[in-house]
Amino acid sequence: MAIKTRRATMNDLQAILNLVNELAVYEQMPESVTAKIDDYEKAFSENLISAHVAEDDNGIVGMALYYDTFSTWKGKMLYLEDFYVQEDYRSRGVGQLLFNEYIAEAKRRNCNIVKWEVIDWNLKAVKFYEKNGATIEKCWWDCKIIF
């Protein structure tokens, strides 16, 4: 079964949300996902989010969800919000295909920088990103307020 990647459509959003929930379980925070399909559909229809998916004959097995933002230091930026490949498809090049799509999309959008987060204990992901030329900054702390 060959893996194909493509730009996500509105019809893919439920599968993407399902993968986000799988990611939350993997990161040991399943209760943290409170966004619903309506939130995804609204954001997608307003062009707030975009995504690429990886699929085979079994359906969607991975995704990269991203959005445009701006770095006051570097200019136009594409932020990778979620990047996930189902466990049975890891170490088979699926993640690399999706990551390449994300980087290509940033270049198509004339971005100067791409950015994302990686959880500190996910050493396979850290190595994957370093292999792809990423700088892993350890001096910045995430801050948030959840309403």
Write the layout of secondary structure elements.
Elements (H helix, E strand, L loop, with lengths): L3 E4 L5 H14 L10 H9 L4 E7 L2 E13 L3 E11 L8 H15 L4 E4 L6 H9 L16
Parallel strand pairs: 4-5
Antiparallel strand pairs: 1-2, 2-3, 3-4
What does this structure look like?
The structure is a single chain. The chain has 147 residues and is α+β, with helices and mostly antiparallel strands. It has a single domain (4-131), classed as Gcn5-related N-acetyltransferase (GNAT) (Aminopeptidase), CATH 3.40.630. It is built from 4 helices and 5 strands, in the order E-H-H-E-E-E-H-E-H. A 5-stranded mixed beta sheet has the order 1-2-3-4-5. Strand 4, helix 3 (94-108) and strand 5 form a beta-alpha-beta unit. The radius of gyration is 15 Å and the shape is globular. The model has no long low-confidence stretch (mean pLDDT 95).
Give the mean pLDDT: 95
* Main sheet record: 5 strands, mixed
Please give the count of helices: 4
Helix proportion range: 25-40%
Strand order in space, largest sheet: 1-2-3-4-5
- Return the domain count: 1
How many beta-strand segments?
5
CATH class: Alpha Beta
CATH architecture: 3-Layer(aba) Sandwich
Into which percentage range does the β-strand content fall?
25-35%
**Which fold name corresponds to the CATH topology?**
Aminopeptidase
Beginning-to-end CA distance, first to last residue: 43 Å
Global morphology? globular
- Strand-and-helix sequence, N→C? EHHEEEHEH
Structural class: alpha+beta
Whole-number radius of gyration? 15 Å
